[in-house]
């Protein structure tokens, strides 16, 4: 099994520069402590050698056993960990551009990451908190990225990965063996696996749900795709061509929101029906991208559009907007503190 060594933080600038994504514009992590009124950069490296402000962030997540610990993955310089609420960061995996990661729900030292390395899509795992990493999946062809990875929370040895070419691949033994579950011939943007089932966000096709660990799937956005069901209120066009990110309420799995190229849609019945959510966007806005729902209330939602972060506290009737001043970059990831709902985090992608 191939081993991957951690790159020293001192080599960070070289790693990032080699990926052509490390520019002078502001990216990295932003944090709000006042419910989204304003956002501040939170990018200091733990050893004082610099910051992660130049990194393009792909995902942010809390340690499932300790919410003061956060992890952030980057498209250009690996995986980072903070033990003090994003005040300081340390690199625990370099060398591989990471698109997604997931932490074992009962063992925080076990972390799975997915992305691309040496021109191949790969999935890696550490079982010692990042001291060593092993490859558990390597794509058969070049130019294929592993875009998403998820664990079954009820049986974490079950792993799902989604490829850029559309293959959904499953393992029942922690990554020792794999089987092809579905082939969508369309990019898989995200896999979410919760106690209610597995959700696969396929870029131009829609959202699929499985309640039997990936043996069968139902398209839950079929009603949204039907002619006439997309809202005439959308300022971005008349047909959905990109399902971007899905957020499911932590307290009610039937409540979910999806960002698309036409705007924001929500369902209160697990995807049986969908409603368009009007946001204060302009014709010059980008389509909504990142989205997060607060644990404390599924009426509290953060949504990004370009470098603007919108917040609603009433499920989408009224919105406030905060300019993150991220130099026109894209807010690509959002996360709300499960214990302190006034605290939230944003990951910036440098465009």
What structural category characterises the helix and strand content?
Answer: mainly beta
Query: Helix segment count?
Result: 2
Average pLDDT, all residues = 89
The proportion of strand residues reads over 45%
User: Cα-atom Rg, whole angstroms?
Assistant: 19 Å
The structural domain count equals: 1
* CATH classification, class level: Mainly Beta
Query: How would you name the CATH homologous superfamily?
Result: YVTN repeat-like/Quinoprotein amine dehydrogenase
CATH architecture: 7 Propeller
| Spans of at least 5 consecutive residues with low confidence | 1-25
Can you walk through the features of this model?
This protein has one domain: YVTN repeat-like/Quinoprotein amine dehydrogenase (Methylamine Dehydrogenase, Chain H). 3% of the residues lie in helices and 45% in strands. It has two helices and 29 strands. The protein has a five-stranded antiparallel β-sheet, with no helix packed on it. It has a four-stranded antiparallel β-sheet with strand order 3-2-29-28, with no helix packed on it. The protein has a four-stranded antiparallel β-sheet with strand order 4-5-6-7, with no helix packed on it. The protein is globular. The protein starts with a strand and ends with a strand. Residues 1-25 have low confidence and may be disordered.
